[in-house]
Design a protein that fits this description.
single chain; 301 residues; alpha+beta; four-stranded antiparallel β-sheet; 17 strands
Length: 301
């Protein structure tokens, strides 16, 4: 198959097919060979090998002529000769790419489409409207607020091309689940990460918290400074430390592994790291293991 970037050549000689052998010995592949006379051949070769072909036949008895560019090479040459067309093509693709970054239309669908007017207003409050740039963080915040509409059990904001589609689903048969108003710490420890889509964060990553402490409050302050109650939409992870002891008849790597696994099971959460000490008592070995686990929590997510 002819390469995408190729050029057509013509070679004249008493024995033109020997020219092909000459090219083959130098590692040049030829395509679409045509005999157009007893002493003339046409063939195609990759455009990047033009200089090499001229060098091979320089000073020989073969007359070699480059006829024209073919396939994509021909198009590329045409664009170079006509910079206005090239600029227009580049501008077209640039405009297409930039337009995909912006919102041109908003559509609301699903069983909760009756909230279309309010949904569009919520998106506008979060910076999503016609001719505004789209952002995943904006969509996530808008989706969290859309869940607050009466009877809505599912809300999703997605962008395809320049169109933002809001999907709202409500159920008359299944009651809306009761939402928690705050996000509270499930265990003592250090806040590793916290993400708030709705509500007010009362702690930050790195803070030490106690079990039951409120991490995100179900309220926010208006620009005028007034407090408005809502429900929190947030998640967090807590690094919780727990120390336990494990008694073994032997001191070994296997005994340590069993001790760590046992303490991790009691601590719960996702194991992160551990430290330990071991002492001998009454012919037994006591492993004191302190594990650190990651405890995840969320509210309305």
């Amino acid at each position: 198959m002819t390469p995408l970037f190729a050029e057509e050549w013509q070679v004249q000689a008493v024995a033109p097919f020997r020219a092909l052998d000459k090219l083959a010995r130098r590692g040049i592949f030829v395509y679409d060979v045509q005999k157009i006379g007893t002493t003339c051949l046409k063939f195609r070769a990759k455009s990047k090998e033009s200089e090499k072909i001229f060098a091979i036949f320089r000073g020989s008895c073969y007359t070699v002529t480059k006829c024209r560019s073919v396939r994509l090479k021909r198009l590329a040459d045409a664009l170079v000769r006509r910079p206005g067309i090239l600029a227009g093509v580049l501008l077209f693709f640039a405009l297409g790419f930039c337009s995909n970054l912006f919102v041109l239309d908003i559509r609301v669908e699903g069983s909760g489409a009756r909230y279309e007017e309010r949904a569009v207003e919520i998106l506008r409050e979060n910076g999503l409207q016609a001719f505004a740039p789209f952002g995943e963080d904006k969509a996530a915040k808008a989706g969290a607020e859309l869940l607050g509409l009466p009877g809505i059990v599912f809300a999703q904001v997605q962008k395809s091309g320049c169109i933002v589609t809001v999907t709202l689903e409500e159920s008359e048969e299944t009651p809306v689940p009761v939402r928690g108003s705050d996000l509270k710490a499930p265990a003592d420890g250090e806040v590793e990460e916290i993400t708030v889509l709705r509500g007010t964060a009362l702690v930050a990553a790195g803070d030490t918290v106690e079990e039951g402490q409120t991490l995100v409050g179900g309220f926010f302050e208006t620009p005028e400074g007034a407090r408005k109650d809502t429900f929190a939409v947030a998640r967090a992870s807590i690094l919780h430390s727990y120390t336990g002891e494990f008694i073994s008849d032997e001191k070994s790597e296997e005994a340590l592994a069993r001790a760590v696994a046992s303490v991790n099971m009691i601590a719960g959460g996702e194991p992160v790291d551990y430290t330990y000490t071991v002492r001998e008592e009454n012919g037994k070995f006591v492993y004191a293991v302190t594990v650190r686990v990651r405890v995840a929590c969320s509210v309305n997510m």
